Amino acid sequence: MSRKRSHKKSFQAGKSQKNKHHHTQGKGGGTHKKHHPGSHAGSLELVGTVQANEKGFGFFIPEDGSPDAFLPPHQMQGILNGDTIRARVFKDPRKEDKFAAEFLSIVKRAHATMVGTLFKEGGRDFLKPDDFRVTQPVILKTGFQKGLPGQKAVATITQWPGGKGSMEGEITEILGFPDDPGVDIKTVIRKYDWPERFPKPVEAQVVGLPENPSETDWQGRLDLRDMLVMTIDGADAKDFDDAISLEVSKAGNYQLGVHIADVSHYVKEGTPLNEEAQERATSLYLADRVLPMLPHSLSDGLCSLKEGVPRLTLSAFLTYSPKGEFIKAGFAQSVIQSRCRGIYEEVQQFLNGTGSPQINAKYAPFKTALGDMVKVAGFIRRHREASGSLDFDFPEVRAVIESGKVVDVRKKDRLETHRLIEDFMVAANEAVATHLEKLKIPAVYRIHEPPNDSDVEELVAFLGAYRIPFKGMDLTTPIGLQTLIKSVKGGPYETVVSSLALRSLKLAVYSTRNAGHFGLALKSYCHFTSPIRRFPDLMVHRALKKALKTEKIPHQAKPLDKIALHCSEQERLAEKAERESQKVLQLRFMENKVGQKFEGPVRHLTPYGAYVELNPYGIEGFLPLENIKDDLYLLDAPSMTLKGKRGSKIQLGDILKVEVLTVDMVFQRLLLARTYG
Q1: Is residue 356 a contact partner of residue 373, using CB atoms and an 8 Å limit?
Q2: Using CA atoms, how far apart are residues 628 and 647, in angstroms rounded to an integer?
Q3: Which of 84, 197, 201, 589 is the most exposed place for a label (fewest CB within 10 A)?
Q4: Across 87-101, 239-253, 459-473, least confident range
């Protein structure tokens, strides 16, 4: 299953830019003013999360954004990876400008359950957690509960570790053997504790909803059923949030219509359906399935903008002059009836003139409209580029699954049709955010704050080490980063520079504070176009209806800022689960490739080795220093190069030949050895 608009880059579609700590107020502790521990005499008590290391030590990550602090092994007794704790932070006497932490108390455990593998030792039953950072097993005093050694299982923790006490639990679910079809994904679902079913009150509520809206439902709405409206999505998509139309006035102006499913008509504040959607905050798109935010009867049915049936929508109308200048935006509650269920690849072939007779016949009624859409997308894109909007064009690496087994791993490139829809959705999101900001209606914005000088240090160091010109480019501005990315496009360092630039950016989050969107170079931005799968979009719809004076926003059970924070947290959790679901299946695919040889570019260097992307699959493997036999290498950090004692060197972007040695499912990585000839 593919996420709708899966090719949008993270700050557009709501996916995080990099694997960077995200500091927010946690559920278990109070709020702290941001401060630097070193700027105060003595120590400070802070709340934060723990990132454990398999060697026994850990790091305390304060939720107020203060620097991370080292937790030595003796301070990690009873603490597990991901736990929220209260700790005393102070200057580390052993290391200048570093900090250490002293554990004070547990604020919140990361998980009530553990997912792992069953095993026996010394006549006792245990579960070894999948999380390699949790080094102690769970003692199962009540046994395997019908499980077998080697099977994956879920244990509910009945006693947490503490002092000399062990961690104990009881088996609540047997998942199966690791190589059984579907077990890898089921393991990911349980690891992230994502609900597969909806509560009975939610199911009871949706039973009473109709299959299709009736005429009474669209009374007072703008009737657009005769308009030439279409959807364009992936071939396997079922939840169609958005449809588009394009009309040209007598004066030659283009009116782009972006029509979004009116989910808020069915999901009302204070209902079980709303509470469950708010708690989930997002649909979870795993490698082989979707766990929707809304029940399937809504997400794939009543709210989905299917071809040939009427659907309730909120429409944004964006008007552009014949020369491409933006003129105005308008909004309305509407009803549409999509004329065509378009598919990205088919529309692309039609536009290129390479479609089959069936494809050409399907899209022939839309030939003029699609041609005009290409023009308008060009207007929008040129305006965005002039403002400095960033566009990171990384192909997705996706597992191809048949009958529960991974049969292939492929890179999925962005098509012009993907970009066209992205451009339209971004334009509609900006228009709605600008409208709500102008009217001062409380809403949830999608914000992306600028990087600090320290955020771009790694990028600047690379540019200097590899002698890539960047003089006169302010890399803390969108236009500066955009100029840099364009300057290396098509060259050997294009991917490396783009990756480092992406890593330099902060995370995009949801907030009631409109701080603008750095990556898109916009003053106002929100998420409006995907209310079937994102709760923030649903809240924006309610705010827009207030702006249209068609509905009053009821009193929120929770303040908007707390809901926005929760949505950001759920988004990060979903991203981790989605990435892991792809990674485990990609590793399964590589299990029968052990011993095979590949080549590919070096993507990252560490003191311990290099990460190499294996062509043609796009999967990364780890090449340890000890598996590079032609020289004795050490990382030279200033030059970002592995340098050999005999003069050899390995740099980012170099193409290496490697052999797959092992597939490590525990640490979720491929181990490689360098080959020659």
Answers
A1: no
A2: 14
A3: 197
A4: 87-101
Q: How far is CA 608 from the centre of its chain?
A: 28
For residue 609, how many other CB atoms are within 10 A of its CB? Answer: 22
- Which burial class, exposed, middle or buried, applies to 523 when counting CB atoms under 10 A from its CB (0-12, 13-18, 19+)? middle
Contacts within 8 Å (CB) and 24+ apart, 31-38: 31/64, 32/62, 32/63, 32/64, 33/64, 34/64, 34/65, 34/66, 35/64, 35/66, 36/66, 36/67, 37/66, 37/67, 37/69, 37/89, 37/90, 37/91, 37/99, 38/67, 38/91, 38/97, 38/99
CB 101 within 8 A of CB 79: no
Pair of tokens at residue 641: 């190069």
Rounded Cα–Cα distance for residues 518 and 436 (Å): 19
| Token pair belonging to 655 | 């193409």
Q: Which of 74, 108, 142 is the last residue of a domain?
A: 108
Task: Evaluate whether 403 touches 181 at the Cβ level (below 8 Å).
Answer: yes
- For 512-552, the pLDDT digits (tens) are 999 999 999 999 999 999 999 999 999 999 999 999 987 76
Identify whether residues 308 and 422 lie together within a single domain.
yes
Secondary element (H or E) of residue 420: helix 416-439
Note whether 530 and 620 are same-domain residues: no
DSSP states along 255-299: EEEEEEE-GGGTS-TTSHHHHHHHHH-B-EE-SS-EE-SS-HIII
Mean residue pLDDT across the chain: 90
Collapse the DSSP code of 643 into the 3-class scheme (helix H, G, I; strand E, B; otherwise coil) and give the result: strand
Burial class (CB in 10 A: 0-12, 13-18, 19+), 467: exposed
Instruction: Kindly state the tokens that stand for 410.
Output: 């492929």
Last residue within a domain, chosen from 191, 211, 242 = 191
Read off the pLDDT of residues 354-413 as tens digits, 9 standing for 90 and up: 999 999 999 999 999 999 999 999 999 999 999 999 998 888 899 998 887 899 999 888
Please tell me whether residues 363 and 407 are part of one structural domain: yes
Domain that holds residue 71: 32-108
Q: Check whether residue 365 and residue 306 sit in a common domain.
A: yes
Count of domains observed in the chain: 5
Q: Does residue 116 lie in a domain region?
A: no
351 neighbors 416 (Cβ within 8 angstroms): yes
d(CA 240, CA 261): 8
Q: For the CA atoms of the chain, what is the radius of gyration?
A: 26
Compute the Cα dihedral for 506, 388, 246, 420 and give only its sign.
negative
10, 397, 454, 576, 578 from 287: Cα distances, Å: 18, 11, 35, 12, 7
Are 89 and 61 within one domain?
yes
Residue 210: how many CA atoms within 13 Å on its side-chain side? Answer: 10
β pairing state of 633-636 and 138-140: unpaired
Give the type of residue at 564: A
Same-domain pairing of 314 and 403:
yes
Q: Is the dihedral of CA 384, 385, 390, 394 positive or negative?
A: positive
Model confidence at 438: pLDDT above 80: yes
In this structure, are 412 and 458 located in the same domain? no
